[in-house]
Structure formats: C-alpha cells, structure tokens
Amino acid sequence: MSTDTHEVEVKFRVKSLKALSAKLRAAGFQVKTKRTHEMNTLYDFPNGDLRQRGEVLRLRKYGRTWTFTHKGPGDAGKHKSRKETETTVEKGEKLNDILLTLGLHPRFHYEKFRTEWTKAKGHVVVDETPIGEYAEIEGPADWIDAVAKKLDINEEDYITKSYSELFLEWKGQTGRSTTEMTWRAIRAKDHSS
What we know:
By secondary structure, the chain is α+β, with helices and mostly antiparallel strands. It has helices spanning 17-26, 49-52, 92-101, 141-150, 163-174, 183-187; strands at 2-13, 30-44, 56-62, 65-71, 80-89, 105-119, 122-129, 132-138.
C-alpha cells in the first residue's frame, strides 16, 4: 500500500497516559492500533544533504509491518505541514542493504511504543519514548485545533519539532552523549561519565 498525502500535525507532551486515554474516549476516539513497538531509522547522504534541505527518509518497523517514507520540507506555522510519500515494504532489512549500496547512511535510530486512536477526520497517536511521552494530532488544521481544545491542550503547548530535534534538546538538557533515542542506548552509561 502506498500513500501520497500532505501531512498536517502537532505534537504535545503527555502528562498522564491514563488521563489522555480517558479524554480521547470522551471525545469519541476509538483505538485503531493497540500499543505497538516501533523502530525507526533515518537515512541521509554523508554530506547531510537531505537534512540540509529539510527532508526526511525513514525506514520504520511497526510491529511486523515495514514502511518506507519520504517527507518533504515543512511549511512554517503553528502546525507542522509537509508532503509525505509512504509505502509498505516486504523486507526492511533488504531495503536497508539497498540504501547503503546507494550511499545513504543511517543517521538516527529511535524507538517508541505507539497507540493509534482514530476519529472521522484524523487521528491521535500516543507515543511512549525513551525521553518521555508525547502525542500527535494529525488531520485538517481546524480539526487539530478543535481536538486539542477537547483534550485541554493550548496552542502554546503545540510542538512542531521532529523526534530527532526533541532528542537533541533532551541531550542538551541532560548532558548525555548518546546518539540514539533507544531504551538500550539511554539506559547505558555514557563513555564520558
């Protein structure tokens, strides 16, 4: 399956997973996918060409399903907005080999547990990451704002940063030198300590 969409979303920090789940149910959301492990690898050329252009090339394993995604440069605003092209992949390990052969390199690894909630015009995903809990509201911009209001999320709480940007912020705040946002890397002591 392939999709070519214009993704519009915001992230926000989750203070309580239990409270957020209750608010989502009260707002009429249904669980689409129960808590599922997700592993992501971002690729780039050695010169960082994709990052410099604001693009993302990602290989994701969500449960047993592999997807390959390209995200174009984002538009500035209170919502994160960018073109996204995604396709399912039968064998992610083989695609990794192809990308390496083409000169692309893994730039960043990150993992999380994701629960997907859905409602008519969009969805909310709840992510448990090694650096904290976050949620994303994705759909039409006005719908995002309406859902955020129902969830008691103010516009000043909107986050439009990527997980790699949030990870770099976390590293700056904690002084950690780890290069991956994985539980194993974050639990390990830094060599500099």
